[in-house]
Specification:
By secondary structure, this protein is an alpha/beta fold. It contains 12 helices and 11 strands. Strand 10 and strand 11 form a beta hairpin. The longest helix has 16 residues. The radius of gyration is 21 Å and the shape is elongated. Bound molecules: S-adenosylmethionine. The site of S-adenosylmethionine has 22 residues, from helix 7, strand 4 and helix 10.
Length: 282
Amino acid sequence: MTVAEVADKIKLKLHQQFNANEIRQITLLLLRHFWQISETEFYIEKQKKLNEQFDTSFLQSLNLLQQHTPIQYVISTAEFYGLKFSVDENVLIPRPETEELVNWIITENKGIKTIIDIGTGSGCIAVALAKNMKHTKMYALDISEKAIKKAEQNAENNDVCIDFFCNDILSENDFTQIKFDCIASNPPYVCESEKAKMKQNVLNFEPHSALFVPDSDALKFYRAIADFAILHLADKGKIYVEINENLAEETQNLFKQKGFGYTELKKDLNNKNRMLKIKFTD
Ligand SMILES: C[S@@+](CC[C@H](N)C(=O)[O-])C[C@H]1O[C@@H](n2cnc3c(N)ncnc32)[C@H](O)[C@@H]1O
């Protein structure tokens, strides 16, 4: 196959499911994944002949995409904060909103000693922070052993050192005596009742334990994070969490009721209340 033939095959197979821009993105990702063809080569070397060795895997990946498998799972890779992450069905695909949370933390916490990322999944938050905060010791935890394995792999691939804990943040535990200068978390926060509005590629493929909380106790992870912070956040430490845009006020109130004197909401690029910073005092 040539580059042009690959592009035509993708268009033919996926045009009913994806718009032109999405098809271009998928084409670039598949060409790079299987044949290391860059974006520039894609535009100027349309007749380049590609190694046949990957033809079968390429066609299989089109079938997976037709079945709504997210492209990141098809190529086992996601980009986050300019870094490459290995992903599979055991971890959430890192989202652009979470890059904004990471950016907020990096900007405001230069030179701090310790951070813990709660619910690390692929490790995207912890790894991106470690990569950009060279003098900060990074810790991360998740309940899922498989997620921790992925996160460890991603830390190694990105050449950063992180201490991982496999722990349940919802159960009382004293897995550490450390006081952290910063707690970061993107915990599960999508209400079960919101499933109806979600796309098949999220619902059928991404781990539900990473996404959903019962409507009856939608803020349970924030309560656990607050309790953890009361024990493990340094006096002048800060918490940064990603939040459900529909529960911004409730999440703020939860931390206030737990005794935290300072909370600050931040909108994401889509103008939705998406992040919250919390401190003991102003
Ligand atoms: C929304 S995902 C976030 C993953 C990653 N930090 C990111 O931003 O892409 C939430 C993560 O919390 C983890 N998690 C769920 N329940 C947990 C619990 N009780 N204790 C610790 N981690 C938990 C899930 O395994 C999942 O990796």
